[in-house]
Amino acid sequence: MAAEVPLVRRRRGPSMADVARLAGVSGQTVSRVANDRHNVDAVTRDRVRAAMRELGYRPNGAARALRNGEFRSIGAIVFELSSFGTTRTLDAIAKAATMSGYSINLLPVLDVSQRAVTNAFSRLGEQAVDGVIILIEAHTLDEAGVQLPDGLPVVVVDSSAHYDYPIVDTDQAQGARLATEHLLELGHRTVWHLGGPPTSFAADRRRQSWEQTLLDHGCEVPPVHDGDWTASSGYEAGRGLAANDDVTAVFVANDQMALGLLRALYERGRAVPGDVSVVGFDDMEEAAHFWPPLTTVRQSFAEVGRHSVDALISEIQAGEHHHSPVSVATELVVRGSTAPPRT
Q1: CA 343 to CA 336: how far, in whole Å?
Q2: Which of 130, 165, 309, 317 has the fewest C-beta atoms under 10 angstroms from its C-beta?
Q3: Using CA atoms, how far apart are residues 28 and 307, in angstroms rounded to an integer?
Q4: Where are the strands (E) in 79-219, listed by range?
Q5: Side-chain half-sphere CA neighbours of 303 within 13 A
């Protein structure tokens, strides 16, 4: 006969009544302190909080949220988690949200369609969030004809989508112009471009700005070589660029593809920057340790994250949309991968 397993009772946590008894106040006073009401004098408030700490009492956040109509939680809908820009932006959003007293609920969307995005909003609604930040490539979002459901404050990051919501983005066009003009000012007759995927809004903006900068300076516009943001795609596209002796300067749409291009140039026996100058985009931490150290365009993910959270919290608190877009400036960081062309 099997031995009986003794029933273990869970120890009851401290209650509001326990705090009230220890602090020598009413339960209503404890409730006011727990809900950050201002109609409690400072001495009493300190005594109640001391009793909470001594007993290990934690106010019921869910119940307070239902009473106040605010959950102190932000939802983040993302399409591509593996890209450097998305991960850095998410990190910045999470830090900014934490600094503002909000938590983050992350929800990846595998299929950008009306149904998938609507389901994502529904799931976030069930998780009781106060607002949503969306990081989905704009061209994919636009081409799918996705409509964002009403009912929650929304901020869209890195997007050209013309939604009735605030949009926060890095100034992609400015960064590409800085990179292209830097190479032209060094004396290169034109600048080749290793671009990101055509479906990407960021890649498209950088490509358009590169082309317009060349036209503004009366330079020939070479054909674009496309990658998919990865170092391996930069290497594959870079092999064609490395084999072309006319190529003396390349603006690459991100640092990871620039790393692949550097390998392709090395294997071809073309020196950087002696034979070919290379500029990247992002200024990822490793860029300063490439060989040679990579000249690149720095974008401030921290600023994008901060502006996104600030814009969303403003919507949450105001109860209405503020549509002014925010464009975060870029900066050219010159290192050892660029130089005047050989004479």
Answers
A1: 19
A2: 317
A3: 39
A4: 103-108, 131-135, 154-157, 167-170, 192-195
A5: 12
